[in-house]
Design goal:
The chain is globular, with a radius of gyration of 29 Å. Helices cover about 40% and strands about 25% of the residues. The chain has helices at about 1-35, 40-55, 60-65, 65-75, 80-90, 105-115, 145-150, 165-170, 170-175, 235-250, 265-275, 320-330, 395-415, 425-435; strands spanning about 100, 120, 125-130, 135-140, 155-160, 185-190, 195-200, 205, 210-215, 220-230, 255, 280-285, 290-295, 305-310, 335, 345-350, 355-365, 380. The model is unreliable at about 1-10, about 20-35 and about 420-435 (pLDDT under 50). The protein folds into three domains: about 35-95, Transcription Regulator spoIIAA; about 120-205, PDZ domain (Pdz3 Domain, Roll); about 210-415, 2-enoyl-CoA Hydratase, Chain A, domain 1. It is built from 14 helices and 18 strands. Strand 3 and strand 4 (about 135-140) form a beta hairpin. With about 425 residues, the protein is of the alpha+beta class. The longest helix is centred in the first third of the chain and has 33 residues, at about 1-35. One of its GO terms (cellular component) is outer membrane-bounded periplasmic space. GO terms for molecular function: serine-type endopeptidase activity. One of its GO terms (biological process) is signal transduction. This is Carboxyl-terminal protease.
């Protein structure tokens, strides 16, 4: 009997040890769910936002998305920098340069640029190529150090102050190019024709001034010129004001210039489309559930006269939405060069600590169903290369070509509207002919 008790005691002891071990495992496993630090909470917040909206859902299985969350939360995160590094490490395997964390300083700079005021930097609008992650120049901003240096759209950034933009990522590269007026930055780039250059740029305040307009007069016609360089918050109102001024000046036709417009707020681009299209499809969006949602323009227009639209390789994103809508609805012919080809839409979310998270949530198609991601939009008429580097100036050859095209369009419309000459037909003959 004593041996039986002893055996039972050992058995119970083993069960107790196993139970305690299980409890310890449960507590260790459960700890991240119930005792997250502020940094871990931020990581989880970012993971949830991406998990709920990211366009390419198939990528989650490929990169083991849930395991990336678990791995990030197992790390001891005590500072904001550690949290940001963990989020960026979690996002990197998704392979989408536009789904990214914006640290507070970068997020504030982006919001400032969306307000359309001014920035301190070199004046480069950048994009990232999905195929290899390389950072490319969408366009230089007008009257900026980059424009003065004649940096071409489509150039690839190789180094920024000896650091690789491809390793830094889109937002960190943009942040390195911004800075106090008078400070300098050295960039290395490869031009579209393969030439490598090193350029020393001095940062300065760049006035974004996204909407510019003027009247163009010659012996035969009066034309309006409207240039939009980005779609920031106040642009739709500024466009309507500019169109009102041009209409008061009696313009017969309009040249809309979307060259080097790298996009901005999609909502702003859609509002500008309302100025030219009446109850017509503007864009279709496709989310990760493959649901296509056509978005029409509102009833009525602010300008319904003849127009032609200038585009180039710096025409991207929201400006491509507008260009594609004008072309597909036969509202305006596009002249110039092929557009950039960014057909992805991002949402921008405030995180709890003042940083931001951009997530690619949809792609867009033109009204005719064209997907332009990495393809761009072909103009109706290509204009002669090389492309002018000073859009809107008196030396702008493409603008001069657009003027000639617009004048020919107006002359053709006038000819079509001219009444048939009937001097050799008397009223009775004319009536008989009409009735027959």
């Amino acid at each position: 009997m004593p041996s039986t008790v002893k055996t039972l005691s050992k058995f119970l002891h083993k069960i107790l040890c196993a139970f305690l071990s299980f409890c310890m495992i449960f507590l260790v496993t459960a700890r991240p769910l119930y005792a997250l630090s502020d940094g871990q909470q931020l990581v989880l917040e970012a993971w949830n936002i991406v998990n709920e909206g990211f366009l390419n859902q198939e990528k989650f299985n490929e990169v083991q998305w849930k395991r990336l969350r678990k791995k990030a939360l197992e790390e001891e995160i005590t500072t904001s920098t550690e949290a940001y590094n963990a989020i960026e490490g979690m996002l990197a395997p998704l392979g989408d340069p536009y789904t990214r964390l914006l640290r507070p300083k970068d997020y504030a700079a982006m919001k400032e640029s969306n307000l359309g005021s001014e920035i301190n930097g070199v004046g480069l609008q950048l994009g990232a190529r999905n195929i290899d992650g390389k950072i490319v120049v969408i366009c230089p901003l007008e009257d900026s150090p980059a424009a003065d240096a004649e940096i071409l759209s489509g150039s690839i950034l190789i180094k920024v102050d000896n650091e690789s933009p491809q390793s830094l990522g889109l937002e960190a590269t943009a942040a390195k190019l911004r800075g106090e007026s008078g400070s300098k930055v050295i960039i290395e780039l490869e031009t579209p024709d393969g030439e490598q250059k090193e350029i020393n740029l001095e940062r300065r305040s760049v006035d974004l001034r996204p909407v510019r307009s003027k009247r163009i007069r010659n012996e035969l016609h009066t034309l309006g010129y409207l240039r939009i360089t980005q779609f920031s918050e106040g642009v739709p109102d500024q466009v309507r004001e500019a169109l009102a001024e041009l209409k008061e000046k009696g313009v017969e036709g309009l040249i809309l210039d979307l060259r080097n417009n790298s996009g901005g707020l999609v909502s702003s681009g859609l509002a500008v489309a309302d100025a030219f299209l009446s109850n017509q499809p503007v864009v279709e969006t496709k989310n990760r559930n493959e649901i296509s949602e056509p978005i029409p323009s509102n009833e009525g227009t602010f300008y319904d006269g003849p127009m032609v639209t200038l585009v180039n390789a710096g025409t991207a994103s929201a400006s491509e939405i507008l260009a594609g809508a004008l072309q597909d609805n036969s509202r305006s012919e596009l002249v110039g060069g092929k557009t950039f080809g960014k057909g992805l839409i991002q949402t921008l979310t405030n995180l709890s600590d003042g940083s931001g998270l951009a997530v690619t949530v949809a792609s867009y198609l033109t009204p005719a169903g064209r997907d332009i991601q990495n393809l761009g939009i072909e103009p109706d008429r290509y204009l002669e290369a090389p492309e002018p580097l000073n859009p809107g100036s008196n030396e702008d050859r493409w603008l001069q070509d657009a003027e000639l095209f617009m004048e020919a369009l107006l002359d053709r419309e006038e000819e079509e509207e001219e009444p048939i000459q009937t001097n050799d037909i008397n009223p009775e003959e004319k009536m008989i002919e009409t009735n027959t």
